[in-house]
Specification:
Largest sheet: 5 strands, mixed
Oligomer: single chain
Number of helices: 2
Structural class: alpha+beta
Strand content: 25-35%
Distance between the termini: 147 Å
Number of strands: 13
Order of helices and strands: HEEEEEEEEEHEEEE
Helix content: 10-25%
Radius of gyration: 41 Å
CATH superfamily of one domain: Immunoglobulins
Strand order of the largest sheet: 4-11-10-6-7
């Protein structure tokens, strides 16, 4: 009888322990299943990994040198001098690239800022994608008369290039016109204080030849 009671107590204890273990196991399983999935997507491009948050939008976009139109892109547009005077010339140098390769660039022209004057086409120079154009004081004068009085005005020139698809790219460069006498009348440098043909202002002649 004593042994039977002892055996009954042991069975009861084992059963009780087994129930506790089963309950604990079910509780742990429930906790795991309700946790976020590893590597699963969440809102706003954010991924959860073992409780850590990785912002997928923090990756910097790849930089691009192409224009919005997909056409040629200026890398540089410069002149060999910043100012010229009568009898001198300057050289414009343009360096371009293109998303379809520099061979896709058809060519370009040098224009006035308002694009009303076309000085002529650029020529290929040196490495691929490099172009140049030489412009003299006289050529500027022939296109638009150079007249300024006691000043050093600036002129803006525009380079315009096209690719085979007709896409356009433009860039401006500025140079200064100067004269030792401070003035220029119809393309010739002069000093208005002593020039009898341009006395005080361009085109005003003095009979005495002395201003």
């Amino acid at each position: 009888m004593m042994y039977r009671n002892a055996l009954t107590s042991i069975v009861t204890l084992i059963t009780a322990c087994g129930g506790d273990v089963q309950t604990t196991t079910e509780s742990q399983t429930s906790t795991i299943n309700t946790a976020p999935l590893t590597g699963g997507p969440t809102s706003e491009g954010v991924t959860s990994t073992h409780g850590a948050t990785v912002d997928m939008t923090s990756v910097a976009p790849t930089s691009s040198t192409t224009s919005a139109e997909g056409g040629p892109l200026f890398l540089s547009f410069n002149t060999n001098v910043s100012k010229i005077t009568e009898g001198e010339s300057l050289t414009f140098t343009a360096l371009l690239t293109d998303p379809d390769g520099v061979d896709d660039i058809v060519g370009g022209s040098l224009l006035s800022e308002n694009e009303m004057i076309d000085y002529g086409p650029f020529i290929a120079a040196g490495q691929a994608g490099t172009y140049s154009f030489s412009l003299s004081w006289m050529q500027i004068q022939q296109a638009t008369p150079i007249n300024f009085e006691n000043s050093s005005p600036s002129l803006v020139f525009r380079a315009r290039f096209f690719d085979q698809g007709g896409n356009k790219a433009v860039k401006d460069s500025q140079i200064t016109l100067s004269c030792d006498g401070g003035s220029a009348c119809n393309g010739s440098c002069t000093d208005l204080a002593i020039d009898g043909s341009n006395c005080g202002t361009c085109g005003h002649a003095c009979a005495s030849m002395i201003c």
